[in-house]
Amino acid sequence: MLTYQGRNRATVNYLKALYFDSPEWTPCRVSLMPATWMKYREDLEEIVLAHPRIFPGYAKGTQDFDAIPSPLYEAGEHTDCWGIVWNNIEQGLDSIPVVHPLADWAALAGYTPPDPEIDAQFGPRDWDAAADALAQAKARGDIASAGLPHGFVYMLLYYLRGFENFMIDVANHDPRLDQVIAFIDHYNLNATRRFLALGAEMMSYGEDLGIQHGLPISPADWRRWIKPSYSRLFGLARERDLPVRLHTDGYILDIIPDLIECGVTLLNPQFRPNGLDGIREMTSGKLAIDLDLDRQLFPFATPSEIHDHIGEAHEALYRPEGGLMFYAECEPDLTLAQIEAVCSGLEATCRPPLKD
Fold it and tell me: Is the distance from CB of 237 to CB of 263 less than 8 angstroms?
């Protein structure tokens, strides 16, 4: 368990929410996608400056409006270290895989998986820079967090094989999947061990396990093919009593107990496919929730409806002892008024203080 000593006020509150230790307020965060910054630029910055409770410490001119967080957000094609070719038709939004290096099983015999020293998106890992970033986070009183690229087991399997091929593999219980999973585990486990050795205090992972109304593969198949990798990977942090955060889009209610068994301590599920009743029933008091508010509502809602949505979610999931956080992602399909409503709604409901 991470201690509170030496942490800033916001981090102590975050940890209290994570550990069900009566936080002062509900932690909340607004993520502005690169394409959203590119679209609105200074007008968006004015909203950020108007909400220092949501964006503490932001100073005018801090944001590069055209910044790209990784090559996958750059328009055009990009080949990652796994040999997957990505295509991006919208600068500032994510790419989709269009060439799958193991689409033909015949390619498996000559396939060389990447070295864990290579980051899937950025090339050779700069471990000195990673160590510095972790140390600086601790010096600020923040949590020194690290993680792997989005799509680290389940999604990586269908990035490599192609989605339809992978679905057929699962249905046929194709034993060749075990060899590919072994490649993936070697990469993930070694990279995670290195982050932990450098002082990471929390590991964060993300991939989209669900679709709108269910799981693409059965819970039994998920337990056969994916759960063992999750258990091995998350166990590296959990054996040190460090927290594990997992983001996943789509419906996941059927496997939340499995995610808890694997070691997830903070789950970032989506509101719309899972519903408040399902999330409350499956998680209440069992693990902390960083709720992904309804991105499918935001583009069509009035400011009042956005405020109501945030309030409804808080009322349904809030427990005085903690276990609740809110996350809101603002894509470029939102208007400035809607983004403003997300920020003001979170301020009114979660009541974050001004930074000390």
Answer: yes
pLDDT of residue 298: 98
pLDDT attached to residue 122:
86
pLDDT under 50: residue ranges of the chain: none
For the chain, counts of helices (H) and of strands (E):
14, 12
Residue 259: CA atoms inside 13 Å, Cβ hemisphere, count? Answer: 26
Beta bridge pairs of residue 268 = 247
Q: Please say whether the beta carbons of 265 and 241 come within 8 A.
A: no
**Nearest alpha-carbon partner for 114 in 138, 142, 93, 83:** 83
How high is the mean pLDDT of the chain? 97
Q: Are the C-beta atoms of residues 72 and 119 closer than 8 Å to each other?
A: no
What is the rounded distance in angstroms from the CA atom of residue 122 to the CA atom of residue 119? 5
For 197-245, what is the HEC assignment? HCCCCEEEEECCCCCCCCCCCCHHHHHHHCHHHHHHHHHHHHCCCCCEE
Q: What distance in Å separates the CA atoms of residue 197 and residue 191, rounded to the nearest whole number?
A: 10
Please write the tens of the pLDDT for every residue from 153-201.
999 999 999 999 999 999 999 999 999 999 999 999 999 999 999 999 9
DSSP labels for 13-48?
HHHHHHTTS--SS--EEEEE-HHHHHHHTHHHHHHH
What is the bridge-based pairing of β-strands 85-88 and 76-79?
antiparallel
Q: Which of 33, 72, 48, 94 is CA-nearest to residue 299?
A: 33
What is the token pair recorded at 65?
Answer: 């409006």
The answer to whether residues 13 and 25 touch, using CB atoms and an 8 Å cutoff, is yes
